[in-house]
């Protein structure tokens, strides 16, 4: 049976609707939105004594149900189809004496002005506004003018709609320009997800007298999970907010039907601040065989650990889901701007929402476990927050790592999933005379997190590799004697501090473009300057160019200035496929200047973070043109790759020689009474080095 029109224009034809309802017969036709779902919203805006007009009523049961539950009785229903009006008059008959059905065109209504308190439209606007042709828009304008005319001041136009962007935008712009208050409700779903995918919305347009001049627009949205409306600033933002909810509904529908081949990511925002509160990743593991209890689980990532490889990368999350043994795992990252009431509070807050992401075939009786590391949500304390003109907004925060260790981190919020600098914190020493706790004494409360910086510890794997690269300088102790090291990029200062503290005769110069970072490193990461450590606030490009110019005027016999140059500088431009260093630092003319300031037996150490394969290959080709000897050391589980570049190929060492040399250097650095972490296995660091 063909019930669809041959063209959208037929939606406005009485002949089409007569044929439609004649073919359909007595069965009620509901465009969308069953009365039990709509009732909570309608109840807010329809009062028992209101006079209600239903436009384009069709043979929907909504008016009858409103009447029967006592919501309202004085209801006038109009439709352009004579056939459906006769059908409805016969169906209601004497059962609902105060309700009437009239054949009438809503574009030319016969009611007096200000005759109704409520005009109700269930799908009629959607049926008319099928396109944005001039004739269609003129018809909709006429409809809105008529609705406005028959509504009293303070009256409400309630429009049930699927909220296609052009439909919502037209309604919002028309009525907000007339000075009406516009509010959009998302209708709570009956959870019969297989029946209808798209969410249903109710536009509530409240009529006010139009004020001359530019009165502020009042635009609001009420998501289904909350009653309190949220104010939005423009029609575009309102349309965007609705579109986000539509996309979410489609996503949930897709996830319920089929496993997801790629990981899905979404943010759940705080109701008050509208800032992200949770970031969810949906990970399916096809290799996990389904059993009674392993369909679905939620994993809460402890605060501050979302940047770790296991939680912060696709491959890591895939490995986590497989090792957890669940067919679908939803990882949940907690945001630093939010407060959380422990694991139980998070579980209560998320239980309803995460079930919308359940996999196909999840049994109704299945309990979904909430998992975490150690059963808690971790610890994150923001110690300092500020904004730099160069680096943007940043935070210094202390987080609890795996076990009992605490770490201090510098995070640039423009790239909040990347740890810019990290330092381990020292556990506080016991106070003199403090007795140990025994069984017969009261157990002390939890200790305060440590605050002193452990300067002997390098947290970042790429920093350990950069230090290991100094083995290329040669000799039993590469930094024995008066050696000079230039570090471009300060961050928290851990790399130059380590070189300064462990290579006792090295003179370290640091170049940092952002003065705010020197303040952060000094105040929060234990960095300090001295006779062998100097910081120069300058653009690294300019500083190296100046040094190269000075070297070029020296006598030929005069040595270049530096034994080692180390680049650990991030790019502020996130649109490039290389986040470290900025592209200008690896252009050939600048690399030649770096070579100029290096001694012939020196080494240039570069921290490279490049996701663009073509760009990386081009960059390596440029480096090989300038530096005859090039080694690479990839960092396992990270995008970072450390490049060791030498201006002469005469000192070429194969990887086995480098490893042997590193063992000698490590032995020289292990001084009595000086802390040395086992993770600084310099020889192991160089096992993975390859010559390019």
TrEMBL record:
Residues 50-168 form the Methyltransferase domain. GO terms for cellular component: cytoplasm. InterPro entries: Lys/N-term_MeTrsfase_sf, Methyltranfer_dom, SAM-dependent_MTases_sf. CDD domains: AdoMet_MTases. Keywords: Methyltransferase, Multifunctional enzyme, Transferase. The keyword Methyltransferase applies. It comes from the Eukaryota. The keyword Nucleotidyltransferase does not apply. One of its GO terms (molecular function) is methyltransferase activity. It holds the Pfam family Spermine_synth. Gene3D superfamilies: Vaccinia Virus protein VP39. GO terms for biological process: methylation. Belongs to the methyltransferase superfamily. This is eEF1A lysine and N-terminal methyltransferase. It comes from Pterocles burchelli.
